[in-house]
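@channel anyone free to eyeball this complex?
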Amino acid sequence: MATEVLMPALSPTMTEGKIARWLKSEGESVRAGDVLAEIETDKATMEVEAIDEGVLAKIVIPEGTEHVAVNTPIAVIAENGEEAGAAENIAPASRAPQETPVKAPRPSPPPATSTITQRAVPPETEYTGKTRTMTVREALRDAMVEEMRRDDTVFLIGEEVAEYQGAYKISQGLLEEFGARRVIDTPITEQGFTGLGVGAGFAGLRPIVEFMTFNFAMQAIDQIINSAGKTRYMSGGQMSCPIVFRGPNGIAARVAAQHSQCYASWYAHCPGLKVVAPYTGADHKGLLKSAIRDPNPVVFLEHELVYGESFAVPDDPEFIVPIGRARIARPGEHVTITAFSRMVKLAMQAAEELQKAGISAEIIDLRTLRPFDVETVVASVKKTNRIVAVEEGWPFAGIGSELAAIMMEECFDWLDAPVKRVAGKDVPLPYAANLERLAVPQVEDIVAAAREVAYR
Amino acid sequence: MAVKRKSDSVKFADLGVSQQELLRYYGDMLLIRRFEERAGQMYGMGLIGGFCHLYIGQEAVVVGMQAALKEGDTIVTSYRDHGHMLAAGMDPKGVMAELTGRRSGYSHGKGGSMHMFSREKNFFGGHGIVGAQVPIGTGLAFAHHYRGNGLICVTYLGDGAINQGQVYESFNMAALWKLPVVYAIENNRYGMGTSIDRASARTDLFHRGMAYGIPGEQVDGMNVLAIYEAGLAAAEHARSGQGPIILEMMTYRYRGHSMSDPAKYRTRDEVNRMRTEHDPIEQVRHRLLEDGANEAQLKQIEGEVRDRVAEAAQFAQDSPEPDPAELWTDVLAEA
Ligand SMILES: Cc1ncc(C[n+]2csc(CCOP(=O)(O)OP(=O)(O)O)c2C)c(N)n1
Ligand SMILES: [Mg+2]
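replying in thread with the prediction:
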């Protein structure tokens, strides 16, 4: 039986090509791998090899022919020992895909949309149990301790997390309680230990990867986004990576540009990740526990300047805060102010100032940036008709920009003033004390922005 | 620490590999060869899109290594992954249907040639970023170590990938913590169009773990039994708590880097010489005939392989494209 040689597609974009040269002539025998012809594609000159052995029975398209469409028969190969005339007796090579549906291997999924907003966030039950006053630092540690007691697959890995007790003293006492098997000091090797964590996550463990600060996670961002974030999708849901990437994000105090950056919008941009940036002690604890239990990769953004702040924190080891819900930190009437992480504190202070001027601000602590709680913000703006979006990071393509877009889409007819952003200045963060202060949002910036949109 | 170079042929009988097993290796390698040839054809017909990296020429590496593994051992590799999946026992139908982007593919059409996985066969991908699979494989080994389950991970990487920084970050951690991992470098002499001597200051890659005390061995990667032998010893090394080990498989890819390779960086002569003098499948075929296997046995295997590949190709064309609603699924797991 003779077979047709079809004009092959030799690049992802090729639709037609030129037969530059035939290297075999009719009647010549060919072996698998022999070059039959040279073809000019849209990108390069490429060789077409014989797939099977046989005799080149007929050249259908002569050399020099241009614009030969992909899949056009260009030659006929006869099996060895076949009559040359066998070229007449051709088995047509299969061509276009035939859509004879086979039984679907899995049922059609229910219609869904993007994961920017959460589909079903579990309700947040009001906590009425005992609380203890503690710092955010201690709340984070307690969250890890409780989850590590609960589940042996949870472990903490990062630089200085064990013997040093944490570069920012978050993991105090963990090595003593859980030992070196589960509290693991790494070399300074961000891409390596992040990828290692991702691999362990694929294998069903629940790593907590601590970055000394998120600035250093840039060395590992490929593993966070490409490996942890995308593999579930690329595997058709077969693979999961239950992993937490945590550490301080944003500015610190006088450490200059390379050590001071907010990565919230970087990670929140990416489907496949969840992104959390809490402010209060209870939220740090409750959200970190949720993050550890979550079957997805969670980027957990902390803030060095918040670690030492004290809050009343629930004592119950079953207390958790669901990922995906914003929190009304202070109800108000005249203007909505959104913030996350340390900026919540400044927004609360701004609200006090505004109150003195007779402006009642509603402060929304976003807490989770992906999935984003559109509902809570929209409900607030429909009441106040004004919004100021505060963040420490740069303004361009930031969380505030996203909020402005959401407002256009969801609240256009409710807005009485343009959306106002308060963000870090568009410069690498300077070292000098006065310049640093100028570069980072201050309470007075928030107050001024709120007054501007309130026209007061 | 031992760093040895080995390329002379192995006395097969000494390895205790029966003719039965050798026939199986022959069939497994042939399946990969024929599968890849068919994938190349289907690419040419426009049935497969994007990047498609064929494994033709390198079949002995994965078949020899797989034979050295135990149930539960894990595997991870790069985008040149079809051979690894077939060797791991994944269904050619599901692999081919993924190549054609259909719903019956291993990733339901969402991963393509470079991104497939099988939890069942302990195959952890299929990764498109050169070198990224190396810390991931080290993490799989970490998980074996953490669980104390006596299993190992084989992490495959190319001669191009070997120059990525994260490879050495992984070597260091694996040696430091004595993780049960075999790093199998598939040295096919080229990373895309860059030959190894244009990319690597030292081209003997089995030395690359030396700074970390990781032993390395160079293996004739065209000889399935040499690979099996080296693989057994390496697996035993990793399994017994001695930490990582490197195998440098000296191999060769006959086809272009991907389907759109103009092949200007090497001569056809070079390719032909490897093909005619070192072909891994031909070597086993000869060995089998010398050892008294008959043509009929081989013909039967060849026929079975041809049928399996034809069936996979048909399946991959008949399977429908993914349901449009699949666009939105599998981004996140439900908490
Ligand atoms: C980080 C990264 N850089 C570049 C590429 C593009 N690329 C894909 S394969 C490849 C060559 C890799 O060669 P090697 O590791 O020897 O593997 P082989 O293709 O020979 O199997 C390159 C440069 C990539 N996928 N990822
Ligand atoms: Mg290579």
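from a first look: Confidence is low (pLDDT under 50) at residues 84-104 of chain A.
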